[in-house]
């Protein structure tokens, strides 16, 4: 019975791929964009780390991380709502409504960005900086946040109306590749650039990306309505924020889960320790790539199986993912522990050899997360957003508390990495338990094998 259900699920998925070659090709193109974007982002990090040393690189990394966190905050959850809402309205030919809602979303995000800029100005005036960040860099980072948020919103809006290529290119590859292309000649001719200058370049690139994205979206929606006005649920009223904010909360918590360690280190252990931890995080992002690819590919299938009620087929998919990802994570963790230090020295220089210890902990964190499979993705796909939000809130709170305690005890970057291990493992375990309680399936190979012995 179980094998028949699994075979039927696999056969159905292959049949859908054969019948939808465009969807399959779009998936491959999206994966290629993400791989290229990650490559140029990592390459930029290597260039800057070698040029500056751990101190300045740590400050720059903190500014970019804070900007990434606040981008999710000022967006107010509108990208997710734009994808969902614009997909419905474009299918009905309601282009004037799409344009109107896009203006509302952009206006709300810009107001939130202006409030952030005002707050950054007050902090810069009152304290002359923040977490070791110079006032001018703090203000530049706040302005950068506003334009990056607008680019992200326009990218989501383009994806919502079916412009998948343009809706991914600028945000994933266009901006980081342009920065990389500008920095490489500067380094080759021996012209050093400061943290402030790189932030100015980032801001200039973001402004151009915003202008181009705005033109793309304007041209794509410059169509006449085909049908009467479409009214669909609470997002059709001014109370759309009540719908958007919960959608954005999980993204904020996920971003914070990867950022709080850097913020706390910048607060308690500034200097070279901040730069070493930033390099460890950058390399750790490469370790998450296999898991991210699997999640992106299988998320639609997980959603379909969870809503179909076929627990046998869903459990089979979750077990395969947990086993395969655990095996990959074991290999990557062993590689980092055995070869990580010489590879770090080769890529970034001798000054960054100290990043090996926190990177090793980050590799073990990925192993721990892999052992518990696709818990958070399953909850998100199965309509358990409230439970997932609560889980991330608890996980971030626990991790931040551990980080403060360890950093006050002098653990430095290793303390930040250990705190992330605690919070991510906490999220994985709670997601697994919630999945079993709410959906009747195990996401962890550990619990699955334990349950079979009972």
Features:
2 strands; 18 helices; disordered N terminus; 454 residues
In summary, what is this structure?
The protein is mainly alpha-helical. It has helices at residues 2-19, 21-52, 54-74, 78-91, 95-127, 135-160, 164-188, 195-220, 240-257, 260-268, 272-287, 289-308, 311-348, 356-371, 375-381, 385-408, 412-439, 445-453; strands at residues 129-130, 133-134.
Structure in words:
The protein is mostly helical and 454 residues long. The chain has helices at residues 2-19, 21-52, 54-74, 78-91, 95-127, 135-160, 164-188, 195-220, 240-257, 260-268, 272-287, 289-308, 311-348, 356-371, 375-381, 385-408, 412-439, 445-453; strands at residues 129-130, 133-134. A two-stranded antiparallel sheet has the order 1-2. A hairpin with a 2-residue loop joins strand 1 (129-130) and strand 2. The model is unreliable at 1-20, 233-238 and 448-454 (pLDDT under 50).
Topology, element by element:
Layout: H1 2-19, H2 21-52, H3 54-74, H4 78-91, H5 95-127, E1 129-130, E2 133-134, H6 135-160, H7 164-188, H8 195-220, H9 240-257, H10 260-268, H11 272-287, H12 289-308, H13 311-348, H14 356-371, H15 375-381, H16 385-408, H17 412-439, H18 445-453
Antiparallel strand pairs: 1-2
Helix pairs in contact: 1-13, 2-7, 2-11, 3-5, 3-6, 3-9, 3-11, 4-5, 4-6, 4-9, 5-6, 6-7, 6-8, 7-8, 9-16, 10-16, 10-17, 11-14, 11-17, 12-13, 13-14, 14-17, 15-17, 16-17
Q: What is the chain-wise order of helices and strands?
A: HHHHHEEHHHHHHHHHHHHH
- N/C terminus separation: 21 Å
Helical segment tally?
Answer: 18
The count of strands amounts to 2
Percentage of residues in DSSP E strands? under 5%
Outline, from the CA principal axes? globular
Question: How large, in whole angstroms, is the Cα Rg?
Answer: 23 Å
Give me the side-by-side strand order of the main sheet: 1-2
Largest sheet: 2 strands, antiparallel
Mean pLDDT: 80
What structural class do you assign from the helix and strand content?
mainly alpha
Which range best describes the helical content: under 10%, 10-25%, 25-40%, 40-55%, 55-70% or over 70%?
over 70%
Low-confidence stretches: 1-20, 233-238, 448-454
């Amino acid at each position: 019975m179980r094998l028949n259900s699994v075979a039927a699920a696999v056969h159905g998925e292959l049949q859908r791929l054969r019948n939808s070659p465009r969807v399959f090709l779009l998936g491959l193109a999206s994966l290629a964009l993400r791989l290229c974007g990650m490559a140029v982002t990592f390459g930029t990090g290597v260039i800057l780390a070698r040029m500056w040393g751990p101190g300045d690189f740590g400050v720059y990394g903190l500014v970019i991380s804070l900007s990434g966190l606040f981008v999710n905050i000022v967006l107010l959850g509108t990208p997710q709502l734009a994808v969902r809402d614009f997909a419905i309205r474009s299918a009905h030919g309601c282009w004037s409504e799409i344009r109107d809602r896009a203006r509302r979303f952009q206006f709300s995000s810009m107001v939130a960005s202006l409030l952030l800029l005002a707050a950054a100005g007050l902090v810069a005036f009152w304290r002359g900086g923040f977490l070791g960040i110079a006032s001018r860099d703090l203000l530049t980072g706040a302005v950068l946040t506003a334009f990056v948020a607008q680019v992200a919103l326009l990218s989501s809006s383009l994806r919502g109306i079916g412009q998948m290529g343009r809706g991914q290119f600028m945000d994933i590859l266009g901006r980081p590749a342009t920065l990389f292309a500008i920095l490489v000649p500067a380094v080759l001719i021996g012209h050093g650039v400061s943290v402030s200058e790189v932030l100015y370049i980032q801001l200039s690139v973001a402004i151009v990306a915003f202008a181009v994205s705005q033109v793309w979206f304007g041209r794509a929606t410059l169509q006449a309505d085909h049908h009467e006005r479409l009214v669909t649920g609470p997002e059709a009223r001014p109370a759309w924020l009540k719908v958007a904010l919960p959608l954005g909360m999980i993204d904020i918590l996920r971003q914070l889960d990867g950022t709080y360690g850097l913020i706390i280190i910048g607060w308690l252990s500034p200097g070279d320790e901040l730069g070493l931890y930033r390099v460890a995080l950058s390399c750790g992002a490469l370790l998450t790539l296999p898991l991210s690819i699997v999640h992106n590919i299988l998320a639609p299938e997980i959603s379909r199986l969870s809503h179909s009620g076929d627990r046998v087929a869903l459990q089979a998919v979750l077990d395969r993912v947990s086993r395969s990802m655990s095996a990959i994570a074991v290999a990557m963790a062993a590689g980092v522990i055995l070869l990580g230090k010489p590879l770090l020295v080769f890529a970034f220089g001798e000054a960054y050899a100290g990043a090996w210890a926190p990177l090793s902990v980050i590799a073990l964190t990925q192993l721990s997360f892999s052992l518990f499979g696709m818990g958070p993705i399953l909850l998100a796909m199965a309509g358990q957003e409230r439970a997932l939000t609560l889980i991330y809130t608890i996980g971030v709170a626990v991790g931040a508390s551990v980080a403060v305690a360890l950093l006050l005890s002098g653990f430095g970057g290793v303390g930040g990495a250990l705190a992330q291990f605690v919070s991510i493992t906490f999220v994985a375990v709670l997601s697994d338990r919630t999945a079993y309680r709410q959906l009747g399936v195990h996401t962890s190979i550990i619990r699955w094998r334990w349950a079979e012995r009972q």
